[in-house]
Write a structure and sequence with these properties.
With about 130 residues, this protein is of the alpha+beta class. Helices cover about 30% and strands about 35% of the residues. The chain has four helices and eight strands. It has a four-stranded antiparallel beta sheet with strand order 1-2-7-4, covered by helices on one side. A four-stranded antiparallel beta sheet has the order 6-5-3-8, covered by helices on one side. Strand 5 and strand 6 form a beta hairpin. It is elongated and about 50 Å long.
Length: about 130
């Protein structure tokens, strides 16, 4: 699991946000699995976390914060809970073939934690 650097403006607006790139770990689980082709069902195990497949680049976080700032004002009570609701569901379903994830060239599997968990948990179920 690799920690992802979040831009300062986003970190200031969401101080308890932690983001981890779990692509390599998911890929390892898929390649070791008994199912060779199907869907990898990846879920966050913490109630304040979620999994997303997206490009891992700074612009994504800035765009996300801009959007969230318009939809959920910074002064809103329970802001993190509202953001979690907007970003739900908390899971991703990723196709795989011959033991390899079917992701786009720049896509990564990111685990978002919204309550400052230093190592938010995840699980994967392979269905084929």
């Amino acid at each position: 699991m690799t920690s992802v650097e979040v831009p300062y403006s986003v970190a200031a607006a969401l101080p308890s946000l932690s983001v981890f790139d779990i692509t390599n770990e998911i890929s390892r689980e898929v390649s070791r699995g008994a199912v060779r082709s199907g869907i990898a069902y990846v879920r966050a195990t913490e109630s304040s976390s979620l999994v997303r497949v997206t490009e891992r680049e700074c612009g994504f976080f800035c765009d996300l914060e801009d959007m969230l700032g318009r939809v959920v004002p910074f002064e809103a009570s329970q802001r993190q809970r509202l953001i979690m609701m907007l970003m739900s569901p908390r899971t991703e379903q990723i196709p795989f073939t011959d033991g390899s994830l079917c992701l786009g060239t720049w896509q990564r599997v990111l685990l978002f934690g919204f309550e400052g968990e230093p190592r938010a948990g995840w699980s994967v179920t392979l269905v084929g």
